[in-house]
């Protein structure tokens, strides 16, 4: 457990322990969000998340035309560009080092962190 859960930076230090990664997609018009907790942020994981998010939004009756992402190596890759073309998406990138460019997703992540991840102490994320 981290210091945000224990309240003590000295307790719960676990060097070498990994973290799960939250992936979030927020519809700009409706503010409807799709999120998954995945093991990493590698290209295949991010592309798989994108495909599942687009399919989920489609099931909700929301047509995806564009995707906005940060400038991480997984989203500036050729594979991600191919995935966007395949899904019929125009890829827009945020301005570097300015997270407010993607404010809706950033705010959703902060809400998740405050309301769920920090408030809930989990021993493991494995099922």
Features:
127 residues; two-stranded antiparallel ribbon; two-stranded parallel sheet; 4 helices; single chain
Strand content: 15-25%
Number of DSSP strands?
4
Fold-level CATH name: Nucleotidyltransferase, domain 5
CATH superfamily: Ribonuclease H-like superfamily/Ribonuclease H
Average pLDDT over all residues: 80
Q: Ranges with pLDDT <50 over ≥5 residues? A: none
Count of all domains: 1
Most strands sheet: 2 strands, antiparallel
Tell me the span between the first and last alpha carbons.
18 Å
- Can you count the helices? 4
Going by CATH, the architecture would be 2-Layer Sandwich
Determine and state the CATH class.
Alpha Beta
* Helix content class: 25-40%
Q: What would you call the structural class?
A: alpha+beta
Major β-sheet strand ordering = 1-2
Indicate the radius of gyration in whole angstroms: 16 Å
């Amino acid at each position: 457990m981290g210091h945000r859960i224990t309240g003590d930076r000295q307790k719960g230090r676990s060097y070498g322990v990994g973290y799960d990664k939250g992936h979030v997609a927020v519809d700009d018009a409706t503010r409807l969000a799709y999120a998954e907790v995945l093991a990493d942020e590698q290209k295949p994981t991010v592309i798989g998340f994108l495909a599942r998010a687009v399919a989920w939004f489609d099931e909700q009756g929301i047509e995806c035309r564009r995707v906005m992402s940060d400038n991480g190596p997984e989203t500036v890759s050729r594979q991600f560009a191919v995935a966007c073309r395949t899904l019929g998406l125009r890829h827009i990138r945020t301005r570097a080092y300015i997270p407010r460019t993607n404010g809706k997703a950033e705010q959703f992540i902060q809400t998740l962190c405050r309301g769920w991840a920090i408030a809930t102490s989990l021993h493991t994320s494995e099922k």
